[in-house]
């Protein structure tokens, strides 16, 4: 019975996420204008897309971020995503493995390594788990790294969600003792400087800012409520662009992943210009997979690579790290947000 309840919730998340998908994200990146270099002294063949993810070298500055897992339907999705990751050579993060740990089963996650035995794979758990569970999650999929997600707004909206969020001790233990690197991530609310300062003190080195503008888990969980009365929580969030601007104060403390409604190579480039080392994409990849199948997703990913190379030439950047030096202009609204933050600190 409990197995069926958990699987049903995973299926609901998957179907509602696709139902709420929007072709145009509202992540604030449209308010960032990049400045071209009209004399780049660079050939397209010179462009190098290599960067780092959780301190490890990767060949492309974007990856399949956490999406789903834990039911028969979502197992099929994960198998397809893992196959796509293997074919395109990009990393992949799985959805929360909590269901597998709670039920004492593999919950279908074993298909990840069956389809992608040599790829870079990140496991995933909520911040309420301890070191013992973190190690079990890593072993379950032979993960190269582990995502620990912070999802207070989602849990508060979820009818059966947690109501206690005393997570710091678990995080410190996992960060200190887990043998694999740990990426601490939000799930669509963005991260404030208050949060980043707390993570810095805990010893966190790798952060996924996961700003508002993409998959909205407050909206997803609100769909599952009888009265749908918790949408107000989404108002307390920061967009992807806002989160990246706030994170610039911590550029020497963390390696940043940007995520939250990324739809194009231009948005990937903007995230990298604003300070991210890599970019996670979930909803867009899931949408293409559902609507058009794995082959179309492979084509889309390869197109993103090609488009990003072209953008980097126009910006005069041979390497991903060069993008951090690109000039940009912010919209009046985003500029005001940045100035107000600086004036308050």
Q: Would you spell out the secondary-structure blueprint of this structure?
A:
Elements: H1 2-19, E1 32-34, E2 51-53, E3 56-58, E4 62-64, H2 72-88, E5 92-93, H3 98-103, H4 111-115, E6 121-126, H5 131-141, E7 145-150, H6 152-157, H7 168-177, E8 182-186, H8 193-202, E9 206-208, H9 217-223, H10 240-247, E10 255-259, H11 265-273, E11 278-281, H12 283-292, H13 294-314, E12 328-330, H14 332-343
Parallel strand pairs: 4-11, 5-6, 6-7, 7-8, 8-9, 9-10, 10-11
Antiparallel strand pairs: 1-12, 2-3
Function: Involved in the biosynthesis of isoprenoids. Catalyzes the 1,3-allylic rearrangement of the homoallylic substrate isopentenyl (IPP) to its allylic isomer, dimethylallyl diphosphate (DMAPP).
Catalytic activity: isopentenyl diphosphate = dimethylallyl diphosphate
EC number: 5.3.3.2
What is this structure, in a nutshell?
The protein has helices at residues 2-19, 72-88, 98-103, 111-115, 131-141, 152-157, 168-177, 193-202, 217-223, 240-247, 265-273, 283-292, 294-314, 332-343; strands spanning 32-34, 51-53, 56-58, 62-64, 92-93, 121-126, 145-150, 182-186, 206-208, 255-259, 278-281, 328-330.
């Amino acid at each position: 019975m409990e197995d069926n309840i958990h699987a049903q919730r995973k299926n609901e998340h998957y179907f509602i996420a696709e139902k709420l998908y929007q072709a145009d994200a509202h992540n604030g990146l449209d308010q960032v204008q990049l400045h071209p270099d009209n004399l780049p002294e660079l050939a397209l063949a010179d462009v190098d897309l290599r960067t780092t993810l959780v301190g490890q070298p990767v060949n492309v500055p974007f990856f399949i971020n956490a999406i789903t897992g834990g039911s028969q339907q979502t197992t099929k999705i994960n198998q397809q995503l893992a196959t796509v990751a293997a074919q395109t050579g990009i990393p992949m993060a799985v959805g929360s493995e909590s269901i597998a740990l709670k039920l004492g089963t593999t919950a279908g996650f074993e298909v990840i390594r069956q389809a992608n035995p040599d790829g870079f794979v990140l496991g995933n758990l909520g911040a309420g788990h301890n070191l013992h569970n973190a190690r079990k999650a890593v072993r379950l999929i032979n993960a190269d790294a582990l995502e620990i997600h912070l999802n207070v707004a989602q849990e508060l909206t979820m009818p059966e969600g947690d109501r206690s969020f005393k997570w710091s001790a678990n995080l410190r233990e996992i960060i200190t003792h887990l043998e694999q690197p740990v990426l601490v991530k939000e799930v669509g609310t963005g991260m404030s400087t208050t949060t980043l300062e707390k993570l810095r003190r805990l010893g966190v080195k790798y952060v996924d800012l996961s700003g508002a503008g993409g998959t909205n888990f407050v909206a997803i969980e609100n769909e599952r409520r009888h009265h749908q009365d918790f949408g107000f929580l989404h108002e307390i969030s920061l967009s992807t662009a806002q989160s990246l601007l706030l994170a610039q104060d911590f550029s020497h403390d963390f390696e940043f992943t940007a995520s939250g409604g990324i739809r194009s190579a231009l948005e990937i480039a903007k995230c990298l210009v604003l300070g991210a080392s890599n970019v996670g994409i979930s909803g867009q990849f899931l949408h293409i997979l559902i609507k058009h199948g794995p082959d179309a997703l492979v084509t889309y990913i390869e197109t993103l690579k090609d488009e990003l190379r072209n953008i980097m030439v126009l910006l005069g950047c041979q390497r991903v790290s060069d993008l951090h030096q690109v000039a940009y202009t912010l919209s009046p609204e985003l500029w005001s947000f940045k100035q107000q933050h600086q004036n308050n600190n």
